[in-house]
Every structure is written in structure tokens, then in C-alpha cells.
Amino acid sequence: MKRFAGRVPALPLLGPGNPQLLRGLRARLVVGFLVVAALSALTTALLTYQEARNAILQRSQDIAVNDLRAQVNSLAPELPVPPSRADLDSLRVQLERSGKSRDWDISVRYSGVRDTDEGDLRGSVVVPAGLKESVEKRHVPAFQRVDRSGDPWLLIGMPVRQSDGRASALSVYAQLPLSAEESNVEALVSAAQRGALPVLVLTVVLALLAARGVLRPVRGLRQAAGRIAEGKLDTRLEVKGADEIADLSRTFNDMAARLEESMAELRRLESNSRRFAADVSHELRTPLAAMAAVTDVLDEDADSLDPDTASAVRLISQETGKLARMVEDLMEVSRFDAGAAALHLDEVDVAETIRKTLQARAWQKRVSADLPANVRAGLDPRRLDVVVANLVGNALHHGGEPVRVRLYAPEPGADRLLIEISDSGPGIDPEVLPHVFDRFYKADSARARSEGSGLGLAIALENVRLHGGSVRAANAPEGGAVFTVDLPLRHEEAGEPADDGCSGPPDDAWAADDAGTAGERTADDDRGGTRSEAGKETHA
Amino acid sequence: MPRVLLIEDDAAVRDGVSLALRRRGHEVAAAASGEEGLELLPGFRPDIVLLDLMLPGKDGFEVCRLIRTERQLPIIMLTARGEDLDVVLGLEAGADDYIIKPARGEVLEARMRAVLRRTALPADGTPAAAEPGPAPVESYGELAIDRAGLVVGKGGKDLALAPSEMKLLLFLSATPGQVFSRQQLLEHVWEHSYHGDARLVDACVMRLRTKIEDTPRSPRYVQTVRGFGYRFGPL
């Protein structure tokens, strides 16, 4: 089977009119085959035509010339010198008669004997000047093919020599039609044409077969690649034969095998790290649970202790709470990383949710809120709480009061909502701006370590992303930093049962998907027992 | 003061929580395993159980189910892993509420109080409770609800409802036909902060339906209103 190693260049004549036509490999192969076949057929036909035509014409020419010469040689010696017009006429008639088979017209000229009215000569021979000259001046026999009203004619001019070899004044001209030869040649051409059409059809068939031979494995390869892309990494191709396609298939299989191995390795690592995160969470939380349970006791009794001990006790209590929050944030981040963060959507009034967030942390007095009522959205209220709390907390800690929270729609009728949190501080350093959402990014190197886990904004960002939204940080022209949360009103998540989530409580058992979020803060009006950093209540 | 049975395998947590609760005046019995806790149960007669989910031997879910088979006392799960599945399974096993560790003493206290209040009369904060002279026993279809005696019967048989189920049913049936969002129910019935886990409500509704409905899949009494929440009736 013939294969094309390279690409068949597209033909310009097919290009502009039909750009679709040459897109595919099959079309290109067919066109390529056709071009090659047509070119070779054409070349063969042309060469054949030329050669055949020349050969046929040459032969009939030679025969005619020889015939004429023979006739003239046999008849001319009987001509009296100088001949009369009648002698010349009889010679002409004899010559014409002798050439009956050839159907030629003869005209005989003798210098000095004036042509009588040549109009009565049948098919009067018109002799071009050049021919006449070479015959009568240079005494050289000559012939010429002429075209008269579409039909080819052969003109032959022959000077008659005297018996001693010197030139005589007699010359004979003959003209004969070449239509028989012409039709022979035409038959050749039409034969070539008739032959070319089946050849071209056959070429298309062959090209399609060749294309199929190439394309079927290519299609198989494409489907296999598609299956790999879908995640079916156990896809393998059947290797047949030992050609390039087989090599390609083998290489593809190697690739798939490697991919499968490395994906398996990745999955193993991922599940390990998930397990690790869960283990760490459990291991860290257990001692923290013991400590957190007794911090109240420490706080209560601290006043009755001597000052140093009291400070130490308060420090331990305070740092225990911070450690608990930090572990909580770390766990939250590791859940995002493991892709184990799930949305629990509910239909909520956004203004009310934000107001509750501010109330729960006793921020109502420190934050001015512009929250229009009746903005309902399907989102995860707990996560929205974390987002707002972390952004507002960030504004309070690092910006400057007054802090404003504004809820509005980007444009009327939009299916998105914007929550803008702005402060009146110095704004964010332009160099820092791209990094504000980075984990553990300390904008101010001199910043006290006690501000939080350094994960607050990163967690806010992840929570917004989980909803399919985005959050931007910028500086307002009039000063102060502005964080803008952009959330869709409805979160369409593939794989989420349509009758669940946003639409309110389900009728039947909710499927417990084991993609877990923990993050349940025991937020029972407790002042920040296990809240994200921003949620820390500061007793004024 | 309520008597608390704490079932927790980690000694430090057990001691810490016991200490915190005793300081607040509770009587505490602590067990290091589910089996031990179940043994203590009849003798100690606690008012409430704090139950760790990760236990050696019988895990928390099973202990929870075993307690529920014969008693309707309030159970609060302590879970160290914030895994959804834990919470969901715990709620399905019949727990009334859950607390994620680590939790401060005051959080434990507040959550316990809230659960214990559920079995008290829902006279406070329920809109319809002020109606003058309600019938001592209200009938809705086959359901008979005795608000004063905290007894719910169906077809003449008393139903064993867990505290959160009872409170939920009393709350919803106080205003038949009124729709409550899951967040509202969390606030009123569980006294959670606004951002509690709505699946508490779903789980409780599920358990309640299996007890009071003829066909839990197509409920008559506790109906779902898509996009809004739940309501009692209308029948």
C-alpha cells in the first residue's frame, strides 16, 4: 500500500472556492492522487499525440512526395521541350489520374508558359510564395502543411530536373487533404480522453482506499486520544503490522501506559495527602479539644492568681484559641486542595446573611452596611459568612475604619451580585496587590504575627471560587482598599442533583456525598471559639 | 443541674471536658468507650449524652443507635473530623445535634442548654402558643399532639420521638400551613447561629417522617415546599 509521507499541498484552484474541501486528509489524498493521475495521463496523452501525429503525417507526407516524384519521373521525360499549355494540361491530368488513390490536385507550371485561367482547375492549387520560391528559384523540392478553413492540407512543390541533372523550368505542385490522417490522430486523442476518464475514476477509488488505509488507524487513534482525555487511561490501541501507523500506535500505547502509571501515582499521593490531612486534623484537634475545653476555667481563675502566673495563664488561653483557629484554617485550605470542599446551597436573603455575619461578630457599630433587601441567591450561607467575615475582618485589621459593606447588582437584571467591602485606610501597596490572596503572604513584614493565620483571604478566595465567582482587590481613587466579591445568583454545578441544593430541602434522603467539608464552626453566639481569623471577636 | 454522660476515648479531652462541665455545676460521668458508656447509662440516668464519634470498638454511630433503641434522651455528637459524612451519619443514627472539636467550655454549655430546652414547653418564641385555651390534645389526621404532656400519638399509640424531633414537630404544628426555611428552623429549634448546617434540619425531618408518616416518601404531615423549606400540613 502506498502511503504519503508528507502532506499533499492544497491546490489553489480548489482553495478559495471551497475551503472546506481540502480540510481533511481524505480530500487531500484524493486530490493529490487525482492531480498525479491527471498529470501523468495528460503528459502521456500529449506525448503520444505529438509522436503519433508526427509519425502519421510524416509517413503520409513521405509517401505522397515519393509517389509524386515517381509519377513525375515517369511522365516528365515524355514532355516536349518547351511544352505547350496543352502538354502541361495533359501532364496535369495524367498526374491527377495517377494519384486517384490519393485524391490530389495537381498544377503544373512551366516558366514562360503563362497559366491559363486556373479557375477551371479543380481545387485550384494555391501555392504560397515561400514554397514557390524554393521550388522555382532554388530548385529544391519542398512541402508544407497548411490549414485551410479548418482542414489540414499538404502542399508539395517539385522542380523537375532534366535528364542531365540540370534544373528545368518545369515544376509540379500537388495539394492533397490530410483529413484521413487528421481523423486518425483525432481518434488517438479521443481514445486517450476516453481512457483518461476511467483512469481518473479508478484513481479516486484508489485514493479513497489509500485514505481509508491511513485514516482508519488515524480515526482509531483520535478516538483513543479522546478516551484518554475523558480519563479512561486504560485505553490501548491494537498494533497491526510494522508500518509507521503501527509505530505510532505502539508509541501511543506507551504514552497511555506511562500516563496511567503517573496518574495512579498521583492519585495515590493525593489520597495519601487527603488521608494525611484528615489524620493531622484529627491528631491536632484532639489535644486542642482538651485544651479549648479548659481555657474558660483558666480565664475565670486568672484574676485570683499572682500577676505573672495570671499573664501566663491568659497567654495560654489566648494562644490556644488562636491555635485552634489556625488549625481550622489549615484544615479548610487542605480540604480545598484535596477538592473535598462541597457546597451546601440554600436559598437565602443575601442582605440578611451579611447582616447576621456582622451581628455574630458584634461588628454592626464598626461597619456601615448598605444592604438592599430582597436579593435572594442560592449559595452556601456558611461559606458566604466566612467570605464576608474574613474580608471585613481584614479591612478592620489592616485597613482603617470606617469600613463599608455594600451589596448591589452590577447592572439591573443581572444574574450576579456584587459585595463590596471598602475601608478608609492607606490602601494596599501596588506591589502587594497581586499577592493579597496568597497564603501566608504578609503584606507588612513588620506586621504582628498575632493577626491571624495568614490564610483568611486565601480561604475567602477559595470559597468564592467554589461558588463560581471571583474576588478582586483594588485601591479606591479616594483612598482605601476595596475588595469586590462577584457571585452568580445561581450556582449550576454539574453532578449536583437538580432537585436538591438550591431548591430548598429535598423530599427524600439527601445523598451523603463523602466529599466532605468540615468547617462547621460551632458558632453558637460563642465569641469566636473556632472561627476563622477574621471572625475573632475583639472585646472592646 | 443536668447530668451529663460523656463518652470520649481520649483521656485529655475526657478530663478537660469533664472539668469544664463540673465547673459549670453539672454532674458528669465519663466513659472511655462506647461499651463502657452503655453500661453506665442505666445506673447513672443522664439527662444528656455527649458522644465522641471516633471510638475504639463500637463507634459513635452504633452507640448512638443503641441508645436510641430504648431511650429518647438528647444526644450530642462530638466530632473531631469535620467530615460531612460523620455529621450526616451521626444525625441519621439519631443524634440531636453535633459539636465540632475543638470547642470551648462555653460552647459545650450553650449547645447542651439549647438541646435540653427543646424538650421543654415551646411556649417561648413560638408564634401560635399564645392562642387562648387550646385543646389539651390537638388532632391532625391520625396524629394526636399533647403539647403540655409532650406526647405525640398516632392511631392511639404513643410515638417515641427524640428531643429534636419532638421540638421540630411541636414548632411546625403550632402554625399549620406556615412555611419555615431551614435556617429559620435551625435558629428556632436548634438555637444554632444563623449559619448552622441546614442538613441537621433535613436529617431530623427524615427521622421524624419515618415515625409519623404512613409513607415517608410522600409525606402528609411534614411537607417540603421546594425552594422555601418545610411546613406542617395542610392536611
Describe this structure in words.
The complex is a heterodimer of chains A (540) and B (235). Chain A has 540 residues and is α+β, with helices and mostly antiparallel strands. Helix content of chain A is 47%, strand content 14%. The longest helix of chain A is centred in the middle third of the chain and has 59 residues, at 244-302. Chain B has helices at 11-23, 34-44, 60-70, 84-92, 105-118, 163-174, 182-190, 199-212; strands at residues 3-7, 27-31, 48-52, 75-79, 97-100, 137-140, 143-146, 151-154, 157-158, 222-225, 229-232. The termini of chain B are far apart. In chain B, the strands form three sheets. Chain B has a five-stranded parallel beta sheet, sandwiched between helices. Chain B has a four-stranded antiparallel beta sheet with strand order 6-7-8-9, with no helix packed on it. With 235 residues, chain B is an alpha/beta fold. Chain B is globular, with a radius of gyration of 18 Å. The longest helix of chain B is centred in the middle third of the chain and has 14 residues, at 105-118. Chains A and B meet through helix 5, helix 6, strand 5, helix 7 and helix 8 of A and helix 1, helix 4, strand 5, helix 5 and helix 8 of B.
